[in-house]
Every structure is written in structure tokens, then in C-alpha cells.
Design a protein that fits this description.
Layout (H helix, E strand, L loop, with lengths): L2 E5 L18 E5 L11 E3 L16 E3 L1 H10 L3 H4 L3 H13 L3 E5 L31 H14 L3 E4 L25 H14 L17 H13 L5 H7 L2
Parallel strand pairs: 1-2, 1-5, 2-3, 3-4, 5-6
Helix pairs in contact: 1-3, 3-4, 4-6, 5-6, 6-7
Length: about 240
Amino acid sequence: MTTVLILGSGPDVVKCRDWDLSGVDQIVAINNAWRVRPDWTVSIFPDDFPEARWPPNGAGRVVRSDEYVPAHTRFGGVVYAGGTMALTASYWALDALAPTQMVYFGCDMVYAEAGPTHFYGAGTADPLRADPTLQILEAKARRLQAMAAREGCALLNLSDGPSRLTFPRGGLGDVATPEPGDAGAVRRALGLEEAARCFVASGRYWEEADRIDPAALREIDAAWLAAYDAEAPQAAMALT
């Protein structure tokens, strides 16, 4: 089994500082999360991430857009897959590291109205910015779950608090089973993606905004939720 731990910058991520990670093969740190533990192996961040916050040279592998955009493209593109760094890191890891299990901590994408939003204090709630591709984060998580299952990879959320990730909860060392969702519903969701014609190979979808139909993306999101919960479409539409 190959296990990849993906660390985000949620307030609780500091709890992992004392964990025994001898059973983890790769530690992928998103944005500032390389500061949490010194044994991270991969640091991944967007091109506009301030240089002052980059990890030290030579401390580990650094992944930038020239690597993660092609991975997104392989799995359907950032418009459909979602552009948060937690999702981006996941698709890159599926492509580059071939894990059999990915486990998440500090990637819940839930931001308190008061108090710290990140382990280092207050930060910008990136997934909540105005973005037609990020209407329903739970749907993007379900899509990732289905794509990972196709690669023989299970997903597990180590958080015990509120989370936008829809993956099963568990503890470090637990072994999860890939969950592909309902096969017919997954085919429908992928068919809707193809019909919407919103794919942007470069990943720079904001430069081709006229090609993106928010209503079509809402329908796609509802379809991905329905792949795991037959009652989900109505709930999804109620969020818009």
C-alpha cells in the first residue's frame, strides 16, 4: 500500500506535529503547510503564492503549475475538477505518486467567522471567492472520490470537525476502500461535462470565462452528488 498524506492549513493541522508518520510514504504540504512538520516531501502552491512564504531551497520537491495543470487535464480539467489547492494537490498526487490511499488533515475548507482560520492565524478563504467553478465544494470532493477509485485509490479524512470533504472519516493507520459511486450516475456526470464544453486545457479558465456556463456547472455538481446520494440533486440546487 502507498499512502499519501495531504496537509492543508486549517487551524487543527498542528495536531499532526507529534504524529508517527512512519507508515506514510509521501507528505504533500499545501501552501504554508510545509511549516507544520520538517519531514514533508512535496510542497505544492499556486503561481501567485508570495515568494516570502516558499519553503527553503532543497528542503523537498516543489510542485508548481507546470506540473499540476497537466495532472488536472488528465482528470478532466480544473473547471470540472475544482481549483482549490486541496483538490489540485490531490489530482497531482494521483497522477504523479500513484497512491493506493490518500489521507487528509487540515483540508476541511471551513472558515470560522471569528478566530483563526488557518494554523498561522487569519488567512484568505480561497475556496469561497467568487468563482463559477467552485459552486458546491462537496460535489468537487465527490468527483475526486470517483476519479481516485478509478485509479484504485481510497480517500480518508482524518479531521474530526466540520468539513467540506465528503470522504469517510478515520484515523491515521486506518485502511479505507475505494468508493467509485453509482456507475450510471458517474457516467451521467461525465457525459454532462463533455456536453458542457467548458474544458480549458491551459487551466487558466478565467481567461476564457465566456465559455463557462455556471448553470451547466450547477447541473454537473448535482450529478456528482447524486453519484453518492440519490437524494442529493435537490439539496445541491438549493445551495445556489
